[in-house]
């Protein structure tokens, strides 16, 4: 396995491949990374941390680029994955290559070079631009197919039989649902990709296990509160039990559960032109709307009074009142005194209508003129989420929040940030300013907010904003994006001790994204990951064919406690190949656009042509892939 990158995701991915899947890994990182201790996932990955430390020590001792310790461990120092660097790293013999540089262009350039050097190589790219990623994926797959037609792809260089496919992932898209869930629901965890939305909710002991499936039993002595990167720093001795069987759920006792509560189709993202025309309520101010309502009430009252005075039909009285209002009716000479008084009052209301109509026109023109400008937080806003940072991660988080119809106020210091265009398109209020400056968070109405989500790229900025927000509102739910694990642990413990009644979460984007990238390198489509205390539960789409643990078995027999569990059948992938039987009548189809059938009966037999969605531990997924998971890898 070849991993190329320039930030913490590369180190975490290498640790995941080596520690969980037991793969031989070559890590290509810039020379500046040599003096920096790669971030790893706390105590749960002590073995992987030791391996990375050995690689860094070897690099510091002048052995970089050479063969590492036994088992094929290797570190190559290079600023970029050029053709020479890839050849030196052994791309021609590699089974899979992950390009996880922070720059999209760098990853694309290296992918094109790698595909030319090894057409049978499995490629995993980190790209933020999703549309460009789809085109690049098709291009590289086409190049691999042409090479296969020439008979040059008869198996991988490592003999593992990987197909030469290309997978494009985004760490921002992978981590955004978990960040949103932490801010909105506290303990809820979600996986959302391509319209598929999975919700996992922690329930207290005795809260029942109703839902599509019980995903985990929480630690017996823990409270299920996640610490940095989803861990519990409180020193829980008995870890969580992932994918328990029915007997374990019944014997759970005082242990909480994580239940799959809802599966639905989330729908596509908001289209760019959806909010071009502002709604009626945003065209006019509240004061102007009340003025118009008052004038309409006056007209109605005059029409009713005219009906009473003259005895005319209400519709005719309304018509005469409008004529008087617009001063186009004849004077009521010779009419009764009441009729004359009503005509004068109608004329007076008509005079009042002129400035109101003028104000309405000016406000509407001003609204259309400023429709492309950034909105300010409205005065009465409350119960919203304050989002700090509109970079790559912040933009994806903002999109997820708006898809869930959650009110958001963004704070960004850079007027040229990439997320400002998205905020403008979605008509989300934005406060431009440094969150460390006084008055910025107040302008975002943090004192009335539901949660604060700090996802800037600076740990100290996120921490300062969280501390200040807590000083304003001690019970505010806070979610921090912190890069350094040791720093995150110290911050989490301090905030938890200082504010025991408030919810505090610390998340690392690379920690949430690494399992998905590793699973894609192993040859399966990872839909997402859900952290459960110190462990991670993966959701993957797997072809049943070629997996003896699944093929020919019933859903109940295929379930292996603590390893994997079949959750759904993808009818779009296996259309026309399912048996027409009474079993279909037991299916409960949720989210027809995704083509997924949930609540499969335990008696349904999985066939080789089926494609299923399953929940699996990292070790269980490794076993399904035919790989030996390394013992003691924090599982």
Give an overview of the whole structure.
37% of the residues lie in helices and 18% in strands. It is an alpha/beta fold. The longest helix has 33 residues, at 337-369. The chain is elongated and about 105 Å long. The two termini are 21 Å apart. Residues 34-72, 152-162, 222-237, 263-278, 576-594 and 628-635 have low confidence and may be disordered.
Structural class: alpha/beta
Note the gap between the termini.
21 Å
Strand ordering within the main sheet: 3-2-1-4-5-6
What share of the residues lie within helices?
Answer: 25-40%
Alpha carbon gyration radius: 31 Å
What number is the mean pLDDT? Answer: 76
Low-pLDDT segments, ≥5 res: 34-72, 152-162, 222-237, 263-278, 576-594, 628-635
Oligomer: single chain
List how many beta strands DSSP finds: 23
Fraction of residues in β-strands:
15-25%
Largest sheet: 6 strands, parallel
Our count of helices gives 19
Shape: elongated
Quick summary of this structure?
The chain has 635 residues and is α/β, with parallel strands linked by helices.
Describe the protein's topology:
Blueprint lengths: L1 E4 L2 H12 L6 E4 L16 H15 L13 E4 L5 H7 L6 E5 L3 H14 L4 E5 L3 H20 L16 E4 L1 H15 L3 E5 L2 E8 L9 E5 L23 E2 L3 H5 L6 E9 L14 H4 L2 H25 L3 H12 L11 H33 L15 E4 L3 H12 L4 E5 L6 H7 L4 E3 L7 H4 L7 E4 L4 H14 L4 E5 L3 H14 L5 E4 L1 H13 L3 E8 L2 E9 L11 H4 L5 E7 L17 E2 L6 E3 L12 E7 H7 L11
Keywords:
6-stranded parallel sheet; disordered C terminus; alpha/beta; elongated; 37% helix; 635 residues
